[in-house]
Automatic annotation (TrEMBL):
Ranges where the DUF1254 domain occurs: 56-194
Gene3D superfamilies in the cross-refs: Domain of unknown function DUF1214, C-terminal domain, Domain of unknown function DUF1254
Record-annotated DUF1214 domain positions: 358-462
Origin: domain of life: Eukaryota
Lineage: Eukaryota, Fungi, Dikarya, Ascomycota, Pezizomycotina
Pfam families given in the database record: DUF1214, DUF1254
Protein name, entry field: Beta-lactamase-related domain-containing protein
Annotated SUPFAM superfamilies: VPA0735-like (SSF160935)
Region (Disordered): 483-502
Range of residues in the leader sequence: 1-19
Tagged with keyword Zinc-finger: no
Length: 529
């Protein structure tokens, strides 16, 4: 009976999101509004402190990579430094002057609306022939378009001309860091300039500064659902749908849900908890329905659905639950693993795995992941959403690591092997040190055993990583490989044990796991991805 009610609620919500107004009741409109507005919680968490501390149309720079002592961001990326700010186009355009970036330095300048839609990117792997960016409201264009204008880089406009679908939004810059370029990245950050323009291209009138909007406090002690409705009442008028033709249906639902300027008033008989459950269930269904099955238990969100969600509000809400500010593909890909080619991955990386002190996870890569120029990748280990303390200060392994093949030659680096074959990454307890010929391929998990999750990230992926023609890593659970002589059924050298993954009884595939995206969506958080 409960399943029937849930499916019925999802069906009603789907007709509302598809533009059919036959079921536009206050209950369904409230569910739609929650689905539509959930990413605003991530925006508020990010924007409120930024606006309070540096104002708008400015950026703040992170200067050092996260460590196990860092708790400001959940599941932090240890590949890049960030520069972040909130833009406000209510009274003027915004101009940016980009530094002169070396050809081998990854730097991506990304633009988001408050709902997390990545509507434009400038820099590595994208339009990168300009050192200036003009950011304007799309109303100034005289059309419904948004994003990077096609005239960018031409004689008519030699810089990048970007139209924002919303009055307010986010600028997020990712700077790749390696073992030698930290000073360079700091210099690039210091020479980036963002400022109010002397022009105001918008045709809108009487829009408030975002400082006035965010100055109206959100009572985050009530419930996430109530917070969403409150944020919609404050922001929806200035942050309309990315697809302009959706404005009518969105506004009809907001009004039917009792959401007006700075005010929320639930209709008589509306069950907010039931509406919230319907919205979250729809988000989970949308996420699962748009997974691309790869191989070896890996899957990912369909590339054409990633980052820029347009009218896919269910996917947008699901992503905001675990990865607010996702990039468009192929700028970044976040494959998830479930050890099953027929079931979903749940969230962005599959569920946590409980490893005892005497167990390990072995990731066997078929070859180096194929990337575009200046692309990079990493596998990062977390426990309870944070980096794992360990004596060697290794939190991720990837293309900038000194991993080795089974013969001891480097997988990456100036003296790396010409060979492009199998290599392995070993995840096991921080206090269970493997033999010396494994330490360069060792990613520590919690000392003494505990819960661990691993997040795989591809940046500027080649097509074979998107369509599954690349053979994804095989993940196996096995006894720990210890320095005091190894373990039965496990090789003492990286990659040499690949043939034992299927045949050796001491190395067995991790059992299928079913993780709940619905539970993940219940907690909205900012995740730097």
């Amino acid at each position: 009976m409960l399943l029937y009610v849930a499916l019925q609620a999802i069906s009603l919500l789907m007709t509302t999101t598809c533009g059919q107004q036959t079921n536009l009741t206050p209950q369904n409109a409230t569910a739609f509004s929650l689905l539509y507005g959930y990413p605003l919680i991530g925006f508020h968490k990010l924007a409120a402190p930024l606006v309070a501390n540096i104002g708008v149309n400015q950026v703040v720079h992170s200067r050092s990579l996260s460590t196990a002592a860092s708790t400001a961001v959940v599941k932090p990326n240890v590949d890049t430094l960030y520069s972040a700010g909130i833009f406000d186009l209510s009274h003027n355009d915004v101009q940016m002057q980009l530094p002169e970036i070396p050809s081998d330095q990854y730097a991506l300048f990304s633009f988001y609306d408050p709902y997390g839609d990545n509507f434009a990117n400038v820099g590595t792997g994208n339009f990168d022939s300009s050192r200036s960016v003009d950011l304007r409201q799309r109303s100034s264009k005289g059309s419904l378009g948004y994003g990077l204008d096609p005239i960018s880089g031409t004689h008519a406009h030699p810089g990048a001309l970007i139209y924002s679908p919303s009055t307010y939004g986010i600028v997020l810059i990712r700077w790749l860091v390696n073992s030698t370029n930290l000073d360079l990245v700091h210099r690039l950050q210091d020479t980036f300039v963002i400022a109010n323009a002397t022009t105001n291209s918008s045709t809108k009138e009487n829009e408030p500064y975002i400082t006035d909007v965010l100055g109206l406090s959100v009572n985050t002690s009530v419930s996430p659902a109530q917070d969403v409705l409150t944020l919609l009442s404050k922001l929806a008028a200035f942050t309309g749908p990315e697809v302009f033709n959706e404005s009518k249906i969105v506004n009809q639902n907001l009004v039917a849900a009792g959401i007006t300027a700075n005010k929320t008033s639930l209709g008589s008989g509306v069950d907010l908890n039931a509406a919230n459950n319907s919205a979250l269930a729809y988000a989970a269904t949308a996420w699962e329905a748009n997974q691309v099955r790869l191989n070896d238990g890996w899957s990912m969100l369909a590339p054409n659905k990633a980052g820029n969600f347009r009218r896919d509000y269910g996917i947008r809400a699901a992503v905001a639950g675990g990865g607010y500010l996702m990039l468009q593909a192929p700028n970044a890909i976040y494959p998830g693993w479930s050890n099953s080619t027929t079931s979903g991955t749940g969230g962005l990386a599959g569920g946590d795995v409980d490893l005892s002190a005497n167990e390990s996870l072995l990731y066997t890569f078929s070859s180096k992941p194929p990337l575009q120029p200046n692309g990079f990748w990493s596998l990062t280990a977390y426990s309870d959403n944070y980096l794992i303390p360990n004596n060697i200060s290794v939190y991720a392994l990837g293309d900038r690591s000194n991993m080795t093949y089974s013969d001891g030659s480097l997988v990456y680096g100036f003296n790396s092997s010409w060979h492009n074959g199998r290599f392995q990454i070993l995840i096991q307890a921080a206090d269970s040190v493997p033999p010396t010929n494994w330490t360069k391929n060792w990613l520590p998990s919690p000392a003494g055993g505990g819960s661990v999750s691993a997040l795989l990230r591809w940046y500027l992926a080649e097509q074979s990583l998107l369509d599954g023609t690349y053979e994804y890593p095989v993940v196996t659970r096995q006894p720990a490989i210890k320095a005091s002589g190894g373990v039965e059924g496990s090789s003492s050298t990286p990659s040499a044990s690949s043939s034992g993954i299927e045949k050796n009884g001491g190395v067995v595939p991790l059992a299928n796991r079913s993780t709940s995206l619905l539970a993940a969506v219940l907690v909205i958080m900012v995740l730097r991805i």
